[in-house]
Amino acid sequence: MKKEQAEILGFVPQKEIVYNKLLPYADQLDRESNDILAQIKGNLGRAVQLRELWPGVLFWTRKLSTYLRLYGRKFSKEDHVLFIKLLYELVTIPKLEISMMQSFARLLVNLLKKKELLSRDDLELPWRPLYDLYESILYSKTEHLGLNWFPNSVENVLKTLVKSCRVPESATQEMLDEWRPLLCPFDVTMQKAIGYFELFLPTIMPPEQHDKGFKLWFDEMMNLWVSVQNLPAWEGNLVNLFARLANDNIGYVNWDPYIPKIFTRILRSFNLPVGTSQMVVPRYLTNSYDIGHVVLWISSMLGGPQNQSQKQLNGLFSSIASFYHPSNNGRWLMKLMKLLQRLPASIVRRLHRERYKKPCWITPVPSTHKLTDQDVTDFVESMKQPVLMAMFSKTGSMDAAQALQNLALMRPELVIPPVLEKTYPAMETLTEPHQLTATLSCMIGMARSLLSGGRHYPEGPAHVLPLLMRALPGVDPNDFSKCMITFQFIATFTTLVPLVDCSSALHDKNDLTEMERELCSASAEFEDFVLQFMDRCFALIDSSTLEQTREETETEKMTHLESLVELGLSSTFSTILTQCSMEIFKVALEKVFNFATTNIFETRVAGRMVADMCRAASKCHPAESLRLFVPHCCNAITHLTANEDVSNEEELDKELLWNLQLLSEVTRVDGEKLLPYRTQLVQILQLTLRLRCKQGYSLACNLLHHVLRSTALIYPTDYCSVPGGFSRPLQEYLPIKDWGRPGDLWNLEIQWHVPSTEETAFVFYVLDLLLQPELQRLQRYAQGEQEMSRDDVLQSLCIVQHCLLGAGSMLPPLDGSTVTGLVPSMVNLEETKLYIGVDYDQSRENYREAVCKVMRQLLHYILEHSEDDTKSLFAIIKIISDLMHFKGSHKHEFDSRWKSFTLVKKSMENRLHGKKQHIRALLIDRVLLQHEMRKLLVEGCEYKTVHQDLLRDLLRLSTSTYSQVRSKAQNVLFTALGTYNFCCRDITPRVLEFLEPTRTDVTQQQFKGALYCLLGNHCGVCLANLHDWDCIAQTWPAIVRSGLSSAMSLEKPSIVRLFDDLADKVHRQYETIGIDFTVPENAVFLGRSITNSSQPTPHMGTPEDQELQQGLAVQQAKNREAEQKYEKLVKDLLECLDDRDLPWKFEHIAIGFLSLLLRDDYPLPAPAVFFFVQSLNHDALVVRKMAIAAVAGILKQLKRPRKKIPVNPCDISGVTEPEELEAGDRPGNDWLQYHSESLPNSQQDWDAFCFVEKTHWGYYSWPKKLMVYAPAAEQPKDLAPDTMSEREAIINDHFTDPTFINQLIKFLSLEDRKGKDKFNPRRFCLFKGLFRNYSDAFLPVLKPHMERLANDSHESTQRCVAEIIAGLIRGSKHWSFGKVEALWAFLIPLMRTALSNITVETYADWGTCVATACESRDPRKLHWLLEMLMECPLSGEGGSFVDACHLYVLQGGLAQQEWRVPELLHRLLSYLEPKLTQVYKNVRERIGSVLTYIFMIDVALPYTLPTKSPHIAEFTERILSQLKPLIEGDEEIQNHVVEENGVGEQDERTQAIKLLKTVLKWLMASAGRSFSTPVPQQLQLLPLLFKIAPVENDDSYDELKRDAKTCLSLMSQGLLYPEQIPMVLAVLHEIAGSSSWHARYSVLTYLQTMVFYNLFTILSSEQCVQGVRALVIRLLEDEQLEVREMAATTLSGFLQCNFLAMDSSMQTHFEALCKTRLPKKRKRDVGSVMDTIPSVDLVRRHAGVLGLSACILSSPYDVPTWMPQLLMDLSAHLNDTQPIEMTVKKTLSNFRRTHHDNWLEHKQQFTDDQLVVLTDLLVSPCYYA
User: Fold this and answer.
1) pLDDT confidence of residue 548
2) Within a domain: residue 1491?
3) I want to staple 251 with a disulfide (CB 3.0 to 4.6 A). Which of 347, 369, 1086, 1650 is the partner?
4) Pair (353, 481) in one structural domain
5) Which runs of consecutive H residues, i.e. helices, occur in 909-937?
6) How far, CA to CA in Å, does 1475 sit from each of 1407, 1451, 1555, 1607?
7) In angstroms, what CA-CA distances link 763 with 500, 698, 811?
8) Per the domain annotation, does 620 fall within a domain?
9) Contact 927, 22 (CB under 8 A)
10) Mean pLDDT highest for which of 279-293, 1466-1480, 1637-1651?
11) Domain span holding position 404
């Protein structure tokens, strides 16, 4: 086969779509594909060489993607590589229009998709062009200013593209050099760098190249990940990178040292709730890991010699198992379910890759690390428990069903039996339908694994019959969801099983195994099953007839639910009959025939269901079925219509309708079998098509449609699970061997129905007989020669439409001359013709054209004479749509079938073995879909005059009087616009005519219709926004001008809404349109390689030289033209805006359009600049806002480039950089930091300094070339009025004009929305641009305003001056020293004034102002500002509030400077320390936040030297010495608040309490912000916090206690390094000996959270586990009851998450404690008091009982082997003294509550004696005893 094909093709295809070989016309496809490929290669290569990106290259790349959909990668490897290289060149053309770039990128992704087809040797692509493209779009410097408009989808397209590219082996090192310098953890660049590493770093390399691959970065990244504790945003990216690395290099990366840490972090990432009251750090929720990558990572680490990951995975699942129980719910549940669903799928994928996949160039997994059978078993065992619980989850059973499907593929014997155990009882129960739906949906997924049985699970198939029989009661008319899942269940199982009675084989054959004999005898029940199923269906139908389910008045259509049941019923019944043997089929046929013919059904609901069942029967075996049905129905109909009057009756007899309906459905069968009955059928059609009754003739039309369709279409006729059916005798073929057998793609033996000559003749005979006369009548009517009533017209149209639908596949498409002159192109833009199995007969009349002609005449006649006949218009619109697009199937039907095909495929596929092992019916369906796809592919159709006429008719209908007609016509129009090449250019001007203001004859309906035509629908073309200058230049000005049209009225809300939607859609969908269409030489060269390639030889060769010259000339002309069109569009819009009569709405729309036209590669024309600058002072706020944004963008366009030069950091610092990596504060980057003794205070210092503006340079490592700005002498001079361009002069004139500025400042200091306004970055950009481009030219005019504003303390004025100042400081980046000095001399006093007026409304704006001003600026440039801010944050002059605000502002500035101002941070800290004992809460909170930022730089990251900024350790020591009085004292710490004017120095203790309150604020603030947690320092404070924190959850506590509790909660959730755990445990042990029981109680709650959040890290050290265990057991014997109970709860939790095991030593310890003897109670006097202190013995005895109780409660959902004995032990204490009795009762009632659901299962674990005792215990004691 392959050889012959290679001979025809001339090459070996890379990978083609196999389904094409099964089409009935497969033998023609090789030649066809070669023709198309030669066409694509010739034209694409030619278009590239002629440099015609649009339409040439775009048109032919689209054809290439269509080719991929039709044939797969059916080209030689050489062509494949050429296509990829060419597209890569095209994608990376700089300045390429974004929509073209996306279209090329999507195709490129498709070509790169199957990695195994091209190895590294075949193809390497450079990574830098892609990186430049990605950077320019995702981190665009101009997008935020509105100079570039990118679509939302572009990010994902580019990411996918980057992931699919192969890069050379040297790339890893180059990438590290490029992005390492960005790794500054305090900066946003960190996120960017790690994001780039995740996307770009290559991980698929052969092992010998690993040294040039991941080994270069693995340790560095891994150490970074391990050392970060507080989940910054980029941690997730690292996880994604590691997951990809693990998956691509199984066995080559040693994960073992990291495994406990990895699993601890994964567990933390689920954010599960632990303990009682828990504070959640918000970033833990937003930055948590992506489950898909977590799953990939876990599944790649399993296996290997130790298989450590499996042990941890067991731990992970046992620790979270109870969260899967259906009674638990929360926002974490979705994540856990995703984990459950994806993990088995990922393991299956890995097994497939290791065991079944064809080897290719990608390195295989080394055999030492492949998953062994034991590994798989262990994995399945670990997942079984959670999956079985999740089956009944609140989120539905889908996730569990998918998990079970994959687990059953690997180990059916482990997972199927427990699910069956749940399924059988669920089928019996009537009260819990939810259980039935859940178990059935899980069984459906496991059906194939159950049936194929295999050596591990041979007893699987025996369950089929019992399951099927018991499922029958589920067909229940009263429970919809149960009914549907039952249908699905039955259909799934019967598709896989031939329903053949094989019991007779027991006597004939003696070579059967035991299992086969059992199946043979069971198969005798099949007949019974089929008949019972039918009875159930009949009952269902009887109860859903119209009379039963509707009131008289209600609708007669089927409801949505009924139509679903109908679908379920008919497809299930059809599946059953397909799989039946002939004997069973005959019985079933008899039964359904009797049911259908002895009753009369109404045709709407019940009738449809019965007819469907009959159709199913006749589809399976047409000959047998038609023999019964056709004569019966025909006789009945002939008999009932014998009377003349019948044809004129309005309401027909029910029996007649029912027989018609039945007949119309049973004829949907193999056309060949219909031919014997053709005379009868034609006779019936002639009788019934002219019935008066609408219901009657509609059914007759259906009959006509189905008869034609059955004979004219190509379709498969059998869907049986085994080719050839089951009719062979049992001696030679035993069907039970085929249970669950997949279809064999290579021997599918599809039986196709291809119309024979006889059938074709019959089709045309029917058309001549029935269609011809209708067309003639309609034509006479349209010419006014014959009267027809509306009903008659409608009836005729109905017949025409159904003839088209039936015979559409035989009628050749409309043809004619092409519409030319729409688009100039030097490349051939022809359409590709696909062969779809029909040879059109040119000798017969082409009815498509005839219908087309008559319909157009009729349409014009109706629109002229009776436009209100909307029903006929609807019919005509439908017919026009079918004339254009219908070749035998509809697009929407195809789409929904494709969807359902993928769903069924998913639910039944075998991902483990792969190789398309689907069931036969599914494969046949897929082949049919391939055929239909070929029929429906209409991309790139030529636009012919016929189409032009039809489109114009549709446009006329789209702008007609009635809204329903308009909307139906518009939908057809939009589909057509997307089908024909360039037809939009022809139609758009016609639509715009309706909007022309000069026309007075346009009605409102036409106006609205035209607007809707421009708007488009949500998925089609939007005419108002085609990405093309010609179209936009027409539509945008027309939309604006339509505001002057007489038909436009703003009183009509519908019209106003339309304009809003239009403007909104244009804004949403606009993408910057290209101006520069240059094609680079590399691409041209590749184009030549394509036209010169062979196999297949391109059908046209390389263009001649003169053509190439012409191409170059055309390209240059095109670029010029684009610029002219752009300028003209701007000019047109400005002209519209000049019109005084234009309503305000349209003015705003026009300005909106103008603002979309700003670009970064071509300056805005001067008149538009003038317009926007003037609009800054427009009356309308909306316009002012648009103008501010636009002017900021214009200033960016006018920005003059600055010269940069490379410098060598070592020359400046005088230090040579060390060989290995050293990050952080080191001698080599000391010169970047702020040193107050060497600041640039004079002109020469300023010029000598090397300023580095960006904060991240130099922290981690230096870039290869550090670029800094050249000295001032080499930079361009400041702008002088005589050297300005026109645009610059316009801005200059306005901003030096005092009246303009006056007005502007007035507007800018108005408030917009009270209390909602914030510092506005747009305005900041405006001022920054002004001062950057014109240096200090505008200061003189602005100064007086700024001084005035700064003195006014109103919110909006302060905000305005803050925006100006921020812009001014950032804009002064390149000013000369003199100007800068003068600037600060003016600004410093001004800011002092402003900051002294600070208020609660404005402090945030001032913070933003300073932060913005300091962002990306060298601190040595800003020393004036920083020193001013440092002066007086806590002077106390303005009261506590002003102090807090000053601190906030200062913090904004210093935080932006990160690690470069250690000196200032030290100064600030020494300044704050004495003031930490603040009284006011707001100041304390602010100080806490500032401290966080001061210590932020003190991080413990790998390769990082200790910082010069303040260290936490030293600070904590100083604090602790001041807190001594609190730590040493024993009395309770109260919140002392002393009056302000308290005399004298307060005592040490009060000072300490005030200090502590501030320290708590600092601890809380830093929990979510810093990178690493200072654990050793926190531990020193722990004892103090435990002392204060209250036990109950009560909000009435004072601030100090609440804060202490919060701090404990946050600390306990912290991630600990392994070496820190023993330190924490030591402190907890110490506190457990404290005298305060509150502290001892809190130790337990702290321990719960800490252990769970560091589970695997603690488990990896035996010593720590023992430490925790000892601590809990010690506190179980605490003298305080509350502490004992909490210890029991904690122990139970640890047992439940498998942190501690229930071993014999623990059990004996508790049993011993329980036996502690209690002292005898002495007889007392009645009046005396009991002793309140419990005796030591009682405590010990209680501890033992609590221990047992904890063990019992730790297994809430199952009964382990040790449980019964413990329950017996416990019951002995039921009558002990309190508190023991109470504990026992509580435990027993909890046990009863949690085990009640599955008590039947759990009962099995107990002996009879134990059950007797237990029943006594659990039944409430009798109250009358």
Assistant:
1) 54
2) no
3) 369
4) no
5) 920-936
6) 22, 16, 9, 22
7) 38, 20, 11
8) yes
9) yes
10) 1637-1651
11) 249-422
